[in-house]
Amino acid sequence: xxxxxxxxxxxxxxxxxxxxxxxxxxxxxxxxxxxxxxxxxxxxxxxxxxxxxxxxxxxxxxxxxxxxxxxxxxxxxxxxxxxxxxxxxxxxxxxxxxxxxxxxxxxxxxxxxxxxxxxxxxxxxxxxxxxxxxxxxxxxxxxxxxxxxxxxxxxxxxxxxxxxxxxxxxxxxxxxxxxxxxxxxxxxxxxxxxxxxxxxxxxxxxxxxxxxxxxxxxxxxxxxxxxxxxxxxxxxxxxxxxxxxxxxxxxxxxxxxxxxxxxxxxxxxxxxxxxxxxxxxxxxxxxxxxxxxxxxxxxxxxxxxxxxxxxxxxxxxxxxxxxxxxxxxxxxxxxxxxxxxxxxxxxxxxxxxxxxxxxxxxxxxxxxxxxxxxxxxxxxxxxxxxxxxxxxxxxxxxxxxxxxxxxxxxxxxxxxxxxxxxxxxxxxxxxxxxxxxxxxxxxxxxxxxxxxxxxxxxxxxxxxxxxxxxxxxxxxxxxxxxxxxxxxxxxxxxxxxxxxx
Length: 501
Prior knowledge:
This protein has 501 residues and is of the alpha/beta class. The chain is built from 13 helices and 8 strands.
């Protein structure tokens, strides 16, 4: 889910749900919807939380957007994060000192850099690393970031959020300074008070540059088409329609790629179930035996205690499995994104070559490929097997009943682990199918719109060509003026960018 914090005269919280509902809640109840402890795996289906709070100084005009992480087992949806990236003016990217700069995180950083000019990097959990290793960890992260982004110096802060919170609660200024948070706050404050305007202007320039190049390509296409005899132009438009449609058929290759990669990933996850059940069952059985041996009270109390122990134990096992498989999931998805990018670039290349071949025009496509991403396997355990529906052990003699209850729980341990691993994998399969469907739809829609806009430019050129020669001359001159204006505007933007830099 996304949490948005902004200034308001009165504090308040609005929670948005997947089904479209929204509700206002007290500020002190915020953690009921935003934390894993009180909303595990987002079982409440929250999509967004808006927090309004009175602020002062440079923060008064700032919206802070906390998006899901991209490496967490419990990420609600990485696509949510990617959807917000093009709309932000500056980003604070938080990495973890105990797992610094994974490949998926570095891929994410590269994606962010394409849209955001101002980046701040934070290595959190530095308190988990010994003093002698902290410098090495920070140096490693800095080197990894520089190698990906090709720039230095980077704004990189090593902090301990846990120590900072404790220091704030205790009112210890020295401890707060040592946590590293104060240095980060100073850096952000300087940016907000002195540099924010420049970043906003740079972001605007980047977006305008993309629009200008796309418009210039469309103008060039129409201008070139006007130079072609009307009969020839009509034939080439028909050929463009036919060949661009054939290129569109290659979308099936992308859909097949998604289906094959998804199926292989799910199969690999399923292969881990057997060994995981075998490895984790002994510890769960030992926990049940321990609880059974120390249990007092009646048989119903024994069943309730064992059932609770079994549920908690299975939850731990499924959590461990999900955490171990998260790396596999992110690695496979990173590869999938690379293959999707290759395939989509090939399609764009076909269109570019086709336009160059038929009309001699070079058109720049500024729109990026929609991101394909999915969260790691979820680890929500269903209620345990329905032992309470069978009352027979409760009517047996006490000693015999206890033995029957124990035997059933021991037998249920591997079955419940296997059942919930299968359930978590099935949920993940469903999410993959849905992500594939959404990506396929968005990609097809983008291709259809792109081809339609190109065809519209060509048809307008054909219609103008069919009119009197004087009209063609006038339109050609007008297009030349548009092209010159766009080129001049692009030069001015580049000049302003160079001065600002």
